[in-house]
Amino acid sequence: xxxxxxxxxxxxxxxxxxxxxxxxxxxxxxxxxxxxxYSVGNMAL
Length: 45
Known about the structure:
There is one protein chain. By secondary structure, the chain is an all-beta fold. It is built from no helices and four strands. The chain has a four-stranded antiparallel sheet with strand order 1-2-3-4, with no helix packed on it. Strand 1 (7-13) and strand 2 form a beta hairpin. The radius of gyration is 10 Å and the shape is globular. Pfam families: Trm112p (PF03966).
């Protein structure tokens, strides 16, 4: 199984500040600039 810890997803951007998001695991993404955490389940990709 592949690990995605600390993988920066350049194609996914924070809706607020447009910075790249990093994958935290368990369906969570965190903005690399403002620190806001998003859940993949409720985010419109």
